[in-house]
Amino acid sequence: KNVSSDIWTKFGLPARRIAKNRNRYETIPNYSSCNKCFQTYRFLDSNTSSIRDHKCPKDISSTQMQLKSFFTSSPTASSSSPPSRSTLISKVIKEKKEIIKKLFVRWVVRGMRPFQIISDSGLQAILQECLDIGYVFLGYMQTL
Questions:
Q1: pLDDT (tens digit, 9 = 90+) per residue, 55-112?
Q2: 15-17 and 25-27 strand pairing
Q3: Does residue 17 sit in helix, strand or coil?
């Protein structure tokens, strides 16, 4: 491969072992992998634009919450006085938002999907419909 782009300092060409000889490998054409996290992308005609958008999870900022702490963080303590109805509804909504976030993270991580998938317009349309349903349901609940 003619290495002309600086992206090749962060990406390499994945290889597979040749079955008959354990010490020999062949590169897998039209694929590249991050050298740190091994996320693999398909590319054609030396076009590196798709791999340039890669956000390596190994380069996480020190201020960004780690996945482990996200799942182990405890909810905030509640007050000792009985909560109002609107406080209860807010608490339920907050808990549901956290559940949805965790489900998204699990979906992305377990499926080895790029985190950018949550920016997909089709997925956002589905989620917006869910939010609209929730908004209507919340309005109905407040009138009871």
A1: 787 776 555 555 555 555 555 544 456 777 778 778 887 888 888 888 888 888 888 8
A2: antiparallel
A3: strand
Pairwise CA distance, residues 63 & 112, whole Å: 23
pLDDT tens digits, residue range 8-58? 888 888 888 887 777 788 888 888 888 888 888 887 776 777 788 887 877
| Residues paired with residue 22 on neighbouring β-strands, in sequence order | none
Structure tokens at 64: 């960004």
CB 30 within 8 A of CB 14: no
d(CA 21, CA 14): 17
- The pTM score is 0.40
Instruction: Return left, alpha or beta for 86; rule: phi > 0 is left, psi -120 to 50 is alpha, else beta.
Output: alpha
Alpha-carbon distance of 45 to 5, in angstroms, equals 13
Is there a contact between 8 and 30 (Cβ–Cβ < 8 Å)? no
Q: How far apart are CA 86 and CA 50, in angstroms?
A: 46
**What contacts 67, CB < 8 A, 6 or more positions away?**
105, 109
